[in-house]
Structure prediction request, 190 residues.
Amino acid sequence: MSDKVRAFLAIEIPPEVARKLADLKYRLAPELAGVRWVPAGNIHMTVKFLGDIVLPMTEAVSGVMSEMAGREPIRLEARGLGVFPGLKRPRVLWAGLDGETEALAGLAQELDERMERLGFRKESRKFHPHLTLGRFKPKAPVPSGLATLLRRVSDFGPLPFRAASLVLFKSDLRSGGPVYTPLSKVEFGT
Prediction:
């Protein structure tokens, strides 16, 4: 057994919201054959990717997480779809987030600063809250009507929920897709 784990901090999405997000694939799959869809149970909102960390470091990360317990849950709603990095060479299909996104960005910034004190690299990109729904296969052709499709489903949502917990996940990359295992969890508002 390795003494390292691939880890990230994330907001859990309520199962009923994740199921509705995953159901979108039935509407979109016929036109997006080149997408690997994220199973409903794997849909989450990544706040900070940590990369490969040694197991003892998970205790220090959990300690920082516990300092977040006093925060109020954040009201969010999944709404609309988009792609990263852009329409010409999309890699990720995502659902956007609205609501108290400034509070979410504040949480991400605070965690980023606290994780930097533990030796993790500070994020250089601007925080863009989203829920990954699928990943475009590297050699699959870009659907010619992708922009039209995204406009057609732009009215998707809103799916309101409360971001009520922060989870440290371990990610095991497997041939059938990643398996996420919670290592520690902090409920907000406690």
